[in-house]
Design a protein that fits this description.
The structure is a homodimer. Chain A is of the alpha+beta class and about 350 residues long. Chain A has 9 helices and 14 strands. Chains A and B meet through helix 2, strand 1, strand 2, strand 5 and helix 4 of A and helix 2, strand 1, strand 2, strand 5 and helix 4 of B.
């Protein structure tokens, strides 16, 4: 497993020679596809860091650069839609580099027959999200594919942000003695999508947590806290994001289940559908790893923002067992929390 | 028509309320979709220029930023494949801003069941094209959609380039007295795709002209020539690109049909399929508009590069009739060359 996770060996790990839904899960199969196909082809110092975006020196400026395609289904869901997601998701990947998001591109792949009224709802929603986040959408592209050759509307957004701090924030920087800070309650985005797909009638509806987190992150950095890692736990959830960090940093991470906030409605839907909230996607949540001594100032800065008013420490970084995430359960046991295997929730973002 | 083309009025021009293939043609319907949907939603000084990319000031650096999704079918065609196209196409959009291309992102939308061997061919081809162009692919994304919800493989690339000149190069800068320089023979990419789709057995095969043009463009700029417009005539071909310039600059453009190079095999396939090469996509061709006095030095610089050894002046910019492109035909007549109407060659790039 270490070998797989180091992502340095282009071994054909999967037994399949075809793309499976699991290759898009953000979990172990995605990592395998990266290791087998993309990293050997494109290998360079930026890509090899496996962070959510690259930090580049361009003409004297330090930039963050990140891309995501959005293929969520349904396109409209409780708490948001694909347009809002496409803006906030890329803004948050820039935030995870500690950058100030500035400019986005937007590229649409539309299926013949897609309703213009839906496209207009989506672009209105993107404008609103971009205004709220303070970013400009400055360049774009539209392609149309024949009926039956896409699924309504796919959107790619790619973002440029300005990195004004001089820290190195990366998944390989977690150290024993650090703590894991989570900015809010988990699994809301994924369960909103799943509840919509299953057409569940819930007493308390579950809504996506999609929101832009960069102002909160910039305030955290402004405290001077020695932030080691930032990651927004989207596909594959908190479990997968922390596994990536544990492997890249060669450390262990011990989580305290009682500290991890899950709202009652989310817990209910998870139980109904048999899903572990630790693996469910978030779109308005940030994992921050800092030395324990800096935790209090980080929490104070986070709690000033409504989107992270419930921020808390959910675990700690330890030396052993390296490359493992372990959960101390509510009933006092310990279990290993592996990366997401295969596919749990396809097309969640 | 002026109203439509100024792209400033969000009128519902088309009679349809659904996306049609023609909305992705790069021609008039694409312009209408921009005017109706995207520009009113995202309106800002960068997007409103309607150039192939945006030029931005970021942290003291002047950057070009451009995005394109590639949905070409078939994925592999004579002279190239979707991977090579995805690198060269975005590199050329950076070149059209006079930028030195530096970094690309790559985002893949894969259909469940797509062969890994094909994906590996595509990524190998991207690597080769990126190496040849001197750009690094620094960040990426992979999504997988269920079988039947995409068409094998779609790729988005978004590029960052450094703009080291201080010129304003834009579609609204053409002036009477300028000439139109074309870097090579036209319609090769589009006809290679169409011949592959129609499974034509040609005596002399037609191959895509996909190649990176930035070194040639940078050499042209280095001559000190007062370059007013640069545009690579992809979707909608030379006719559509020049119509955009004529409208944005409020000038007329008169083309000399005898000066426009079309190879015999391309002319043959065009005649066979009933297509006008002026409307067919190019992927290794650049239109450059400069004052007549600078034409000779531009041609000399271009002809030093194999990809533009056949560069020539194909027309001139005139005051009247404004906003029209007129072709002086080989038989001595004159005809108006309008923008591409509707859809001619879907999914050509």
């Amino acid at each position: 497993m270490t070998q797989q996770m180091s992502l340095s060996c282009p071994l054909p790990i999967t037994s399949t020679d075809r793309i499976l839904l699991g290759h898009g899960s953000g979990g172990k199969m995605t990592a395998e596809l990266l290791a087998r196909c993309f990293l050997p082809a494109f290998r360079n110092e930026y890509l090899d860091r496996l962070d959510d975006g690259a930090v580049l020196d361009v003409g004297g400026a330090r930039l963050a650069f990140t891309t995501d395609s959005y293929v969520v289904t349904p396109l409209f869901f409780p708490g948001g839609d694909i347009g809002e997601l496409a803006v906030n998701g890329t803004v948050n990947d820039l935030a995870a580099a500690g950058a100030t998001p500035l400019y986005l591109s937007a590229a649409f792949i539309l299926e013949e027959g897609f309703a213009l009224s839906e496209l207009e709802r989506i672009t209105a929603s993107m404008r609103k999200a971009a205004e709220a986040a303070g970013v400009l959408l400055v360049t774009g592209d539209t392609k149309v594919v024949d009926r039956g050759k896409a699924d309504g509307c796919f959107i790619n957004t790619t973002g440029i942000g300005l990195v004004e701090h001089t820290r190195l924030i990366s998944a390989d920087r977690a150290r024993p003695g650090d703590v894991v800070v989570l900015s809010g309650s988990i699994a809301e985005h994924g369960m909103a999508i799943m509840a919509a797909r299953a057409e569940l009638e819930l007493e308390t509806p579950v809504e996506s947590d999609t929101t832009a987190l960069h102002r909160m992150v910039l305030d955290v950095l402004a405290t001077g806290a020695d932030v080691h890692c930032l990651r927004d736990p989207t596909r594959g959830g908190v479990a997968t994001a922390l596994n990536e960090i544990a492997h890249r940093s060669a450390v262990g991470i011990v989580l305290d289940e009682t500290a991890i906030p899950v709202t009652e409605p989310v817990r209910g839907v998870c139980e109904l559908l048999g899903l572990d909230p630790l693996y469910v996607a978030n779109e308005g949540n940030m994992l921050t790893i800092v030395p324990r001594t800096d935790a209090e100032q980080v929490l104070t800065a986070m709690r000033r923002h409504p989107e992270s008013s419930q921020a808390r420490v959910i675990g700690e970084v330890v030396e052993d067992p390296a490359r493992l995430v372990v959960l101390k359960t509510t009933v006092g046991g310990r279990r290993i929390v592996d990366m997401l295997q295969g596919e749990q929730l396809p097309r969640i973002c």
